[in-house]
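Why run this: before we spend reagent on co-expression, it is cheaper to look at a predicted model of the complex and decide which construct boundaries make sense. The entries below are exactly what would go into the expression plan.
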Amino acid sequence: MRRYSVALIKGDGIGPEIIDEAVKVLDAVSVKEGFEIAYKEALLGGAAIDVTGDPIPEETIRIAKECDAVLFGAIGGPKWDDLPRDKRPETGLLKLRKALEVFANLRPVTVYDELVNASTLKPEVIQGTDLVVVRELIGGIYFGQPRAYEGEKAYNTMVYTKDEVRRIAKVAFDIAMKRKKKVTSVDKANVLEVSQLWRDTVNEVAADFPEVALEHMYVDNAAMQLVRDPKQFDVILTGNIFGDILSDEASMLSGSIGLLPSASVGKEHGLYEPIHGSAPDIAGQGIANPIATIASAAMMLRYQFGEEKAADRIDEAIKRVLKEGYRTKDLASFDAKEVVTTSEMGSLIAQYASEV
Ligand code: IPM
Ligand code: MG
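The model came back. Tokens follow.
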């Protein structure tokens, strides 16, 4: 029997609800495909602050490192917004990413045919969109030193080394080789030195991938092109903050931010999480869309464990529920046959994923 261990970090807001559904689906497919997952829960964000005073207790880092992968819900909420920066929930997540050295954040954007009308953009613009944002996750302005808030003045530093750019660029080109063989590297090289270094380094890496078409695009133009003609993109390679912004923008192509999964990987560890936040305004009501988290669990099976069949089962089940018209409230107005709760959606996907 193949056995895997997964650190479960539910977090805050809708985090616990959506993680429960992902576990439901994982349990269903593991039975079908003959493997076993042992879960270990760990605290992060507000949930950790409430118990320990620290957004990321040592024990959480230890559990996350010991397990074969981490499945994470979401963190944050108004309750913890006024805390000093180093005590905020978000700091916990950033420290976790850093501790696991998951430098590559992969955010695929799929537009499900069944939902082309769910986007605020015209169906003909988005139909057939299939892109992935490859975001550098543990460098750039999020982590650069010096940084400070000093009364009348505050500053952060956007810094990248060539090594950091090289390793994320390689990931992007490797992924492009398995897709449509196109990389769009996004920067602000017309203004920033750090972007010039980014661009020069990406060009160097590109020399090892002669089959891949590389283009460079300024981030402001990329933001515009994403809504003008998203089909032009295959792999978008970019730094931490540009990737943060562009991936939220790109998520709306699919109709709901509640649909998009992500994988953060490094040499050793993998952290899987929906790209959306903790949505404290709808927490506990059973209306959150669990699909992004369930799809993140599928990415974990595929990338971390090599359980392709189980991952395919989940991805197909998600397509099927959408095709059959089941919608959580966020997508209720888009050809819904039946509006279902968070838990009903999880059960349907678990059921479909175990059929055949
Ligand atoms: C994301 C989030 C995080 C980020 C926050 C919660 C720190 O927006 O995963 O995109 O900025 O990376
Ligand atoms: Mg974000």
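The chain has two domains: 1-104+255-356, 119-251. The domain at 119-251 is CATH 3.40.718.10 (Isopropylmalate Dehydrogenase). Bring this page to Monday's planning discussion.
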